[in-house]
Structures are given as structure tokens and as C-alpha cells.
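Journal club prep, notes for RB
We'll compare a predicted complex against what the paper describes. Inputs for the zinc ion case:
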Amino acid sequence: MSLPEFPVEGGCVCGAVRYRLKASPLAVYNCHCKDCQRSTGGAFQMTMPVRRGDIELIAGKLAAYVVTADSGRQIAQMSCPTCHTRIWNEPQAAIELIMVRAGTLDDMSWAVPVGNVWADRKQPWVTIDPALVNFAGQAPSREPLYAAWSALTAKSR
Ligand SMILES: [Zn+2]
Ligand SMILES: [Zn+2]
């Protein structure tokens, strides 16, 4: 797995919202919670925690919808007001981070998940690799996920 040359870009389905990611995310992992299943329409969401200073909106505007996650935490889900693609989440418990949805990247081929959260809510047909960094519920700390991402991306350098 090799990282792209940053910056890279991503955006919404209609093209109104565009963002630039200036550095590697801190990790990429899957969340199997019910909110992620509903809001993606899939079995899990692929999320990338990014330092707030490493991402910028370069076109369009984002609209906020605040949800209370299964963890009890409040999260602002930011989406395109026109096509309603959810681009990223801004967790109020970690304002230094933006949780970007990996599928909004123009090229997400390098965004390989290193772990899973809310693994106990996964769908029965989803297979979780036991070698990854997995948590039954919310990760008590994201550090193990960050460490796994650093190890994975270091191999490519
Ligand atoms: Zn849009
Ligand atoms: Zn989730």
C-alpha cells in the first residue's frame, strides 16, 4: 500500500462541494454502528480522522446535521446542501479532528482500513480480519489505529 502524493482532492456527488486533503489522514478504519449503516446505506462506513489544519474546503459549502451517536457523543455530520452527500463528521468530543468519509476521495484506492469499530454491530456476512485493530464498540483511544496506519504506510516508503 503506497500513499499518494499530497495534496489530494475529493468531493460530493453533484460536484458543488470540493475539498483538498494536504497530508495523510491519521488512520483509515470501518465503523459498523447503526448510524453509519443508515447514513451510508451500506454495512459500514469508512472513516479517516484528519487533523483540522490538513483539510480545506475549496468549493461549495457544507450544511451541518447534528446527531447523537450510539456512543452518546454529539457529532455534526457535514453534507452538500444540494446533493446531500455526507462528506465528513466533526465530533464535538474531538474538535481538533475531522472524520472524513473515505469514499468521497476522488481516488480512494490507497485508503486501506487498518481496523474496525463497533465490530459487535457488524452484519453477519461481514468478515473482520482478526489481524486488524478491532474494537467491539467505540475505540477507547484511536492511538492503536494511528499506530497501525503509521506501520502500514511506513512499509510503502
Ligand atoms: Zn453535492
Ligand atoms: Zn459509526
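Talking point for the session: The mean pLDDT is 94.
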